[in-house]
Amino acid sequence: MTLTGGLDLAAVFVFALTGALTASRAQLDIVGFIFIACLTAVGGGTLRDLVLGRTPVFWIAAPEFIYLAAFAALVVFFTAHLLESRYRAILWLDACALAVAVPAGVGVAAHLGQPAPVLVMMGVATGCFGGLMRDVVCNEVPLVLKQGELYVTAAFAGASAAAIAIWQGLTPDIALLICAAVTLALRAGSMAFGWRLPVYKSRPPRS
Amino acid sequence: MTLTGGLDLAAVFVFALTGALTASRAQLDIVGFIFIACLTAVGGGTLRDLVLGRTPVFWIAAPEFIYLAAFAALVVFFTAHLLESRYRAILWLDACALAVAVPAGVGVAAHLGQPAPVLVMMGVATGCFGGLMRDVVCNEVPLVLKQGELYVTAAFAGASAAAIAIWQGLTPDIALLICAAVTLALRAGSMAFGWRLPVYKSRPPRS
Amino acid sequence: MTLTGGLDLAAVFVFALTGALTASRAQLDIVGFIFIACLTAVGGGTLRDLVLGRTPVFWIAAPEFIYLAAFAALVVFFTAHLLESRYRAILWLDACALAVAVPAGVGVAAHLGQPAPVLVMMGVATGCFGGLMRDVVCNEVPLVLKQGELYVTAAFAGASAAAIAIWQGLTPDIALLICAAVTLALRAGSMAFGWRLPVYKSRPPRS
User: What is the band of A2 on the pLDDT scale with cuts at 50, 70, 90?
Assistant: First the structure.
């Protein structure tokens, strides 16, 4: 199995866990858990494949991805009550999923021989859109929009690091590992230590 | 006309009715009715065609689908005031639309020679995504998420029944009729008699 | 550069401005501004390209579109505090973006030799979906749904005017200019003078 294939599997599994936990907050039944888990797990990669013209998309060609997401949903359905805070679990698992999905997106684009800006865009899109669909459908405030946290920024920095590494002649596998490390470090650092970029603040009240 | 073609037409028409009724709850004008009706009517089938790589999608190849959805929107615009409860009408029409859209999705995938898991996924996606887009855009609580009702479950059971029937050697047409019957029975039974699966309930308050 | 290419550029830039202004209302950081600006700027055109089967989509083939959207986001990040009302700026910029995006959608479809109904649908989809995604993701009431304003109607009238003009034998460039003028006139007239179509009103309270 290639590194990109392994990253895709890991991203699907961990995003599916976050989707199922979000389904538990909405008190859905077991099939609802599987539905939201699959949506979250394959949403970003589906967008990536569609805009790049790689059809049928990855989970049609290999339904194992769907089985894996469904398995993750079952695990959550029977164990989520053991968690102290499902919301904190969602946050941290989502950070891990982001850190594998961004390099998965970059890896697919690099494999197709796309130029550096497309690598960055596919990394950000693959990383951010699964969670965005999960939050929009389940009516939660999208993590992407949480004020004063590095989320899109972490994805962007990780994908950019990979593009620079590939441009500098490092092997793709090393570039993808750098990408995962940068993304996870920034996202986790933002949650644990409050790292952030300045946000836009207008002087007068919101208008 | 093939059975799949007929199911596609029926799904477009009935989903368009639900979309227009939702537009009436948002007090849109006539073009707004047509817009939401079209979005609901072709949303699920568009996703199905995109992920399977069938482009241009079905309503580009045959604009009659759009005319049909627009006609449904006109019918609702001029008659919705006769309904006692538009919300109940949406619920029941949506159940009928689900029961024709799921087999339409399965039928297209079967026609392309896809394996059983893809048949099930395309049935669920075609059935559920049109209504999901309607509800997200119009800011209604998605029917997919309504606690303790069989919705995705009905679609999943119907699509699975069709996949099993095809695997057992039944003709595709009979498999699709079984699919429609199972989906409608479960969804209608859930609304009328309260059939449901156990939902996830955590002991402590939502966290 | 062709007229359609110029319209695509203009639509990307002006929609990106509206996206960044919406990001400022959500108090995001600079990368968040760029993310929402890009989503708004290329959302409609991406949908158009996907359903027509033009992949890779336009901004993969030409990343300049993304640079332009990012530049617009930077401009807004550093100047939005000078605006008296960001909401009014969003409304008027969105009207301008609509008036260039609708002909851009029609122009691409006409270039592919699509029939008149497809021209109209691609005009409406390209014009309306970028702003719709922006509003759904940022949890604003979609402009598409604002009661008693011409929005989809303006897009529909403009696209229809272009289709009629092409059918009457006018050159595509003139047809696209007519399209832009009709769309802008109706949308701006609706905002400035209250032009509207009758909206659906039920006698009894909303049910």
Answer: confident
Chain A hits for B199, Cβ within 8 Å? 27-29, 32
- Assembly ipTM: 0.89
DSSP three-state, residue A55: coil
Residues of B in contact with A33 (CB under 8 A): 200
In a domain, A207, yes or no: no
**Chain C residues within an 8 Å CB radius of A50:** 50, 55
Helix (H, G, I), strand (E, B) or coil at B199: strand
Is pLDDT at C196 greater than 80 in this prediction? yes
Q: How far is B176 from chain C (nearest CA, A)?
A: 26
| Cβ neighbours of B175 (radius 10 Å) | 24
B and C: number of Cβ contacts within 8 A: 86
Closest-CA residue of A relative to C73 is A200
CB contact under 8 A, B207 and A86: yes
- pTM here is 0.91
Beta-ladder partners of A207: none
Q: Give Cα B94 distance to the centre of its chain.
A: 7
Quickly tell me which residue has 């039928």 as its tokens.
Answer: B107
Tell me which chain C residue has its CA closest to the CA of residue A112: C56
Residue A200 lies in a domain: no
In Å, what is the CA distance from A122 to each residue of A103, A119, C119, C190? 9, 5, 29, 39
Residue A124 domain flag? yes
Whether the bond between B198 and the residue before it is cis, its omega within 30 degrees of 0, is no
Tell me whether residue C149 is in a domain.
yes
Domain of residue C181: give its range.
3-193
Cα distance between residue A201 and residue B115, in whole Å: 53
Give how many domains chain C has, as a whole number: 1
Structural contact between residues C10 and C100, judged by C-beta atoms closer than 8 angstroms: yes
Q: Output the pLDDT for position C203.
A: 54
Strand partners, C199: B29
Question: Distance between CA A27 and CA A21 in Å, rounded?
Answer: 10
Using alpha carbons, select from A27, A17, A25 the residue that is nearest to residue A130: A17
Contact C78, C23 (CB under 8 A): no
